[in-house]
Write a structure and sequence with these properties.
alpha/beta; Rossmann fold; 6-stranded mixed β-sheet; two-stranded antiparallel ribbon; 8 strands; globular
């Protein structure tokens, strides 16, 4: 379900803050795209962090959420703000040797209602991994919220879900990428790349 905020205004905020990049990018999923959302660039401004996190928090405020968890690194800032607005404990999961896990003394208590918060989803890989951690800990998945949905609305997380911005984003398998075919240099942005 997309946000009630005007989508064109949200896109303008991303453009004005340099958070919407254009070129040839390898996404965290491994797919290639002519666009990349560097949410950290927009979330560095408190008014936009508050705006987007507030939209997520409002959507889940009556879901009896007790804990917010985000995948590191992109989801941490927005997850922390959503948790603050909901007045609940906030933690994050991170990769060690390529495996998503809960560390640093964080825990999900059995029966705790958990909201998973991410910045951008394309295939939802990191979110699915965090959901698995919630279920392994016997937590209750209370919802999934994210700022940008690049999946063209195709993702379902078997829970109430909500995005601030939903796009018909273009992404290609590397072997089918026309940008590669045209020799456009590839950039690997984001927390696991070099941007």
């Amino acid at each position: 379900m997309p946000s009630k905020l005007p989508q064109n205004e949200i896109l303008n905020i991303f453009r004005e803050t340099g958070a919407l990049l254009e070129g040839h990018f390898q996404l965290t999923s491994g797919l290639h795209s002519p666009q990349y959302f560097q949410c950290a660039r927009v979330l560095q401004f408190p008014k936009y962090l508050h705006l987007f996190a507030g939209e997520l928090a409002r959507h889940f405020e009556y879901n009896e959420i007790e804990l917010v968890i985000s995948p590191a690194i992109g989801g941490i800032v927005v997850g922390t703000e959503v948790g603050r607005l909901l007045g609940v404990r906030t933690i994050f999961a991170e990769r060690r040797n390529g495996i998503m896990e809960i560390r640093r003394g964080f825990e999900i208590r059995p029966g705790e209602r958990v909201l998973v918060v991410e910045d951008v989803v394309t295939t939802g890989g990191s979110v699915y991994e965090v959901i698995d951690l919630v279920r392994e800990a016997k937590g209750i998945l209370g919802g999934v919220g994210y700022i940008v949905d690049r999946s063209n609305g195709r993702l379902t997380f078997d829970a109430r879900q909500y995005s601030v911005l939903q796009l018909n984003a273009v992404a290609f398998k590397p072997e089918e990428c026309p940008l590669c075919g045209n020799g456009v240099p590839l950039t690997k942005p984001g927390s696991r790349g070099n941007y």
